[in-house]
Amino acid sequence: MPYEKLPVLEVDGKPVAQGNAVAPYLARKYNLMGKGKWDDLICEVLVDTLEDLDQGE
């Protein structure tokens, strides 16, 4: 397990273990990012905000 951290996503047999990379990858793969670059940016802002809130506990 890379970096001994979760989450881990396996892509083409290779593990990826950074949530900030995994989330946008999956959102793009499953067409959840929005309809343009602005929507993409807002989605990434929301993911980062949730991480900030989680670290504040």
Automatic annotation (TrEMBL):
Gene3D superfamilies: 1.20.1050.10, Glutaredoxin. This is Glutathione S-transferase-like. It comes from the Eukaryota. Residues 1-34 form the GST N-terminal domain. SUPFAM superfamilies: Thioredoxin-like. InterPro entries: Glutathione_S-Trfase_N, Thioredoxin-like_sf.
